[in-house]
Design a protein that fits this description.
single chain, alpha+beta, Aminotransferase-like plant mobile domain-containing protein
Length: 90
């Protein structure tokens, strides 16, 4: 379902007429992983300290007045938590 919202032309997700484009720097900042070849040490930091269920509830509270930066952050964290922790984190 999520992949069906991807628009190749704009290289972004289009959800409810809102375009959500992400740069590699934004992804690195949101998930806390280095983006410039800095060595990552597993176990030194967490993504957000929340479960996917917590993030889902936060997303449900968003509305059209929510800044796009917050929408992007919540969307990426929710997506990644479901990809990397599909059974244990939800």
């Amino acid at each position: 379902m999520l992949l069906s919202t991807w628009d190749n032309k704009s290289e972004s997700f289009v959800i409810n007429s809102r375009t959500l484009a992400f740069t590699s720097d934004e992804l690195a900042l949101i998930i806390g992983l280095p983006n410039r070849g800095i060595k990552f040490e597993p176990g030194t930091d967490t993504i957000a300290g929340k479960t996917t269920n917590d993030i889902r509830h936060d997303i449900l509270k968003l509305d059209s007045s929510t800044p796009i930066e917050i929408v992007r952050e919540q969307f990426i964290v929710y997506l990644l938590s479901n990809i990397f922790f599909p059974m244990t984190n939800f």
